[in-house]
Amino acid sequence: MCLYFKHDGSDMVVVGVYVDDLLATATHEELVDKFFEDMAVLSIKNLIYVSRFLGMRVHYDDHHVYELDQEVAIDELLRKFGMENVHGERAPIGKECNDNPALQEELLPAVDKSTGPRFGDFNLWSTACCGLHAIPDRTSLSQSTKATRQTHQPRLADWELCKRVLRYLSGSKSVKLRMKGCNSGAALRLEGFSDADFAADKTNRKSVTGGVVLLNGMPILWVCKKQGGVALSTMEAEFTAASHICRELLGFRQLLLEIRLSVEPMPLMVDNQAAIKQLRTE
């Protein structure tokens, strides 16, 4: 996603571009209309108010609240795998997610041409991986979609995790991301939360960074990824996670300031006292 903006005194136009899809907004509706008039030479189609973008359904109400959901995309994904009527799961992963993969060596079977594709075939696995990555508005899937890393030699355990995620989506497809409007000129609240799971990977004992960045209470970035090095203590793992979220906060702050939006002092929530003391001395 690229972001372009133009200032003209107190007026401003902001355009987000993703491949051949555009989102345009401005301080006045007339500025948006003028933008599309100026870009008419490129045969850009103006769909007026946004209702769908990158597979997400967008709803805006009279209370200045935006809601994002992917219920339609989830229904389509479940229908593709014949799971429209499955019982939902309360969580996308279980405690077995951190089991040593070396103990789960049974691979998915190849396609049986004589009997046709089975539910656990490799081709369907690839389709499921693409489908899960097409659900970008779910913070709860950051850890569970790690199963899609096994694209070369997926195991049966990976497929079971994938089916669990699909059942979770079936039971939570109506969940939405909400962002409320704020008073004109009011400073935006940008805050971050970081955490770390020390030595979580039982294969190489690398820790996992987890974190989220909120803008006026709405998640705008979330991360759950394995750290590059092996942390020697819980404090080191937490410090690494906190530094990752700090970089993201600074990036968002710079972007908001460039488009002339004021930002409150940014708090970072860390749940490790040793890491907090280390951060305060840096």
UniProtKB/TrEMBL annotation:
It holds the Pfam family RVT_2. Residues 3-93 form the Reverse transcriptase Ty1/copia-type domain. CDD domains: RNase_HI_RT_Ty1. InterPro entries: RVT_2. This is Reverse transcriptase Ty1/copia-type domain-containing protein.
